Amino acid sequence: MQPPPERTAPDAENAPPTGPGPGRTLGQEAAGGGAPGDARATGSPSAEGSSVPGPRTGAAKAGRVTLRSDLRASWPDGLVALAITAALSALIWARINSRASSTATVMPFMADDPEAFLLYFLSQAFGWSALLWAWITVVLGLLLSGPRPARLPLSGPRLERLHRTTSLNTIALIAAHALLFAAELIRHNDAAWYGAAWTAFVETFVPGGYESGTGRIAIPVGQAALYLAIPLGLLFYIRHRIGPKTWRVLHRFVLVVYVLSVWHTLLYGTNVWYDGWFRTSVWLLQIPIAALFLARLLSPARRSERLPALAAVPGGGKPLWTARAAGRAAAAAVLVVLVAILVTGRDGGREEPPADTTSTHNHD
């Protein structure tokens, strides 16, 4: 979940190789098509006007974006994420204790003894924080790759760094959500610890391993989000090895990770199990995503992705133009559907509790 190529040079991979411009790090230059440390990024003009390799200075090394540097920079929004997770955990517990949450209907045994399921509530809180941080990451990415508002509280480079750090924290929050869910399964399993740990591992991390009700679909969807988020988020740091074009193609699948996360939440988030304001608020958050995605398709930062440029591509221009136009129509349709859900408060999901709300993990 990393930033797209530098907005100020949307077609850098098609331009003649140059050194990094003012204010651009070597890492950002690599995203535009050059590799850090090569002659095009660090060279100096020769007498003939070409670039020759120059010495790798300490400043150049320091300017390159690395996983280590982003991990160091990620702690401020990481602390904010933990604070929000703690608040959400308290809110979830209070709603369960007062039986205001859908969870009390889906799994009434938890409402009877909420203190015994604190790990589950904490897992839910991390899941909600992960979804919120994924939302922030996608919004930042769309702001960077589409038409950017004239006034933003952060500059482009700072937005890019925040986009990267929220991406890393999203991965951490998803992992914590899954691990706490596994810990909850272990805690309420009467088998020997190694047997309970193995069962929890299979049910939490192996596709098809969870065989209870809605979880047969919802858990694999969440697993897919986790297993895609990790490589897609970390590929940014080796984009100079796989090539910027390959990285950009793979990076677009980040939106798929976000869609899977929302799908997992609506399917398995017992807090939003039935229609109501809490579930509708989840849909409300998707409207900015859809609007920004449509704006990104209508006016992408990269000139080579705009419809006139696609139409001018020799040979394959028409299919590319058609695909881009179809994407615009689909994004507009999704936006209309989201507004309809928000207005009606109905999304075609569960409207009332089923007759049988028992769970295979009911440990009464």
What does this 3D model show about the protein?
The model is unreliable at 1-62 and 360-364 (pLDDT under 50). The relative contact order is 0.12. The chain has a two-stranded antiparallel sheet with strand order 1-2. The radius of gyration is 24 Å and the shape is globular. The chain starts with 25 loop residues before the first helix and ends in a 20-residue tail after the last helix. It folds into 2 domains: 12-63, no CATH class; 67-344, no CATH class. With 364 residues, it is mainly alpha-helical. The protein has helices at residues 26-31, 39-42, 58-63, 67-73, 75-97, 103-106, 108-112, 118-145, 156-187, 193-205, 215-234, 239-242, 244-251, 254-268, 277-298, 307-311, 317-344, and strands at 44-45, 51-52. Residues 1-61 are annotated as: Disordered. Keywords: Membrane, Transmembrane, Transmembrane helix. It is found in: Membrane. Pfam families: Ferric_reduct.
Mean pLDDT: 78
Unreliable stretches covering 5 or more consecutive residues:
1-62, 360-364
Shape: globular
Q: Give the N-to-C terminal Cα separation.
A: 42 Å
The percent range for helix content is 55-70%
User: Structural class per helix/strand content?
Assistant: mainly alpha
Q: How much strand? A: under 5%
Number of DSSP E strands = 2
Number of domains: 2
Largest sheet: 2 strands, antiparallel
